[in-house]
Design goal:
With 495 residues, this protein is of the alpha/beta class. It contains 17 helices and 21 strands. The chain has helices at 8-20, 25-46, 62-77, 92-103, 136-146, 193-197, 251-262, 277-283, 297-304, 320-334, 346-351, 368-375, 379-384, 386-397, 430-445, 451-465, 478-487, and strands at 4-6, 53-58, 80-85, 107-109, 120-124, 151-155, 177-181, 184-185, 199-203, 216-218, 226-227, 239-243, 267-272, 288-291, 309-312, 340-343, 358-364, 398-403, 409-411, 415-417, 493-494.
Length: 495
């Protein structure tokens, strides 16, 4: 079973159904806090040096109630605990939680003027219900939290982070570990969520009921590729066509073609401006080449009839020549039904001007800027709700989609979130590598591999490359890493 990811309203409705069955709200709060305290006790003992002093940062709602209860149980474990808090809200459950710590004689400070060092700071300020920008005073509290030293842990979600979009509002706490309650929240994994959440661990307390609906699934990082047959040959493993390469941009098609080979394609042909041919052959003599300016409509149709997948748009450009090439190639590609088609980069730019419905063998890989062009909106609107954006893209154009970025989203029949990858992959050419991988693996395996699995393999290749450091990581270094991950997946199924 894949890990399910939920919208905050689904979590809240789930809680409400649980309480409607006469289950205690305060009882659940205590269960959650006890489970968190147990996990923290293990974490604190494993720390070097061991953690002994803990500061709880508590707000005014039930998330704060979890915090007060955690303080109570950590005190029972023998930790030196102090609470820094806003004025408490009117929840009866919160009042009961405060009474617990008062009986323990745990010090409660009605402010956040922290004058001594604590080994650990636990964030219980705001929960998943927060959906508005915080005022200046509350922002200052979160910034003050971020300025503290020591281990930082969030209960349920880092305060200030939108639970559904992963966007700070406009400030959020940055923690080393998030102990999220009941179910995984989408905002922990996409947008800027990964920057703030640290390591994420699920505290599962309440049994799932039939009415609970997920918004997405986490893409698994253990991927099973079919084994190659002993009698296979180059024609068995797909012929990939890479089309792009404006006179001023030859690198993108080269990166896509090399990654297609590294991912296992049997043959790769590049169609680009002839001025790049010498450089491509010098670097990769196994790549076949055609001059994009010399091909007639008949040549194009003939070429498309002999390949299994097309990756179109890398380095195409956006000038008059590029527009002409897009018009020349898009229709025959789109109207050749057996092709696996990847539309990337500048092809997406021109696609935005087309009123077209794509088939399910078309894979589109925009970054937020390209997504904004396709939806005729701003980049900020894309980033403010990435899940809504990718759903709108599929509604408008059909096909299968990847919205690139931290926590890349992949929309096939279902929505997936990629949890692999790293900040070092934010560099030019990584998208070209992905486009080549998609074309290659789809040419080889068709429906026996899913788009979210390919995106994850690309991210895992980036993670392998980043073992030597993220800073300075370059797309041209990805070939060996791609080669490694496609050969060290969980293989075992013969085709």
């Amino acid at each position: 079973m894949h890990q399910q990811v939920y919208h905050s309203r689904e979590i809240q409705a789930w809680e409400a159904r649980w309480f409607a069955q006469q289950n205690s709200v305060f009882g659940l709060m205590q269960q959650v806090a006890w489970s968190i305290a147990q996990r923290l006790n293990i974490l604190f003992q494993q720390a070097s040096p061991q953690i002994t002093t803990v500061a709880l940062w508590c707000g005014a709602g039930n998330n704060a109630g979890d915090g007060y209860c955690v303080a109570h149980y950590l005190h029972q474990y023998g930790y030196q605990v102090e609470i820094f808090a806003t004025e408490a809200g009117h929840s009866q459950q919160l009042k009961a939680a405060i009474e617990l710590v008062q009986k323990d004689k745990i010090k409660i400070h009605p402010h956040f003027n922290i004058e001594k060092r604590f080994d650990c700071h636990i964030d219980a300020l705001f929960g998943i219900g927060l959906n508005r920008d915080l005022d200046d005073a509350l922002q200052a509290i979160l910034q003050h939290y971020n300025a503290q030293s020591g281990l930082k842990v969030a209960i349920d979600i880092p305060s200030g982070l939108n639970a559904n979009t992963g966007q700070p509002l406009p400030v959020a706490v940055k923690v080393d570990q998030t102990l999220t309650v009941l179910g995984l929240k989408a905002g922990l994994f996409t947008g800027q969520g990964r920057e703030y959440a640290g390591q994420i661990e699920l505290i599962s307390i309440v049994p799932i009921d039939p009415q609970l609906k997920s918004v997405a699934q986490l893409s698994p990082t253990q991927i099973q590729l079919p084994q190659r047959q002993a009698f296979g040959h180059k024609g068995s493993y797909g012929h990939v066509l890479v089309v792009g390469g404006h006179a001023e941009m030859g690198g993108a098609v080269m990166l896509a073609a090399e990654s297609a080979f590294s991912a296992g394609a049997g043959k790769v042909t590049v169609v680009c401006h002839a001025k790049h041919h010498t450089a491509i052959l010098a670097r990769s003599p196994n790549i076949m080449l055609r001059d994009i300016n010399a091909l007639t409509d008949v040549d194009i149709q003939n070429l498309l009839s002999h390949v299994d997948a097309v990756s179109f748009g890398m380095g195409l450009g956006r000038d008059a020549w590029a527009k002409q090439q897009f018009s020349k190639w898009f229709s025959p590609i789109h109207l050749t039904p057996q092709l696996q088609v990847v539309l990337d980069a500048d092809a997406l730019w021109f696609l935005a001007e087309q009123a077209v419905q794509l088939n399910q063998r078309t894979y589109l890989t925009p970054h937020p800027g390209e997504a904004a062009k396709l939806l005729n909106c701003s980049v900020a609107e894309i980033e403010n709700d990435r899940i809504a954006a990718i759903q709108k893209l599929q509604q408008k154009y059909s096909g299968q989609w990847v919205l690139k970025g931290s926590g890349s989203l992949i929309l096939e029949k279902h929505l997936w979130i990629c949890t692999a990858g790293n900040a070092g992959m934010g560099t030019g050419g990584m998208g070209d590598v992905l486009a080549g991988m998609i074309a290659s693996l789809k040419a080889q395996f068709d429906e026996n591999i899913h788009l979210h699995e390919i995106v994850t393999l690309h991210a895992l290749a980036g993670d392998r490359l980043a073992k030597n450091g993220m800073r300075g990581l370059q797309a041209q270094q990805m070939s060996d890493a791609v080669y490694y991950v496609v050969n060290h997946s969980l293989s075992g199924v013969s085709m």
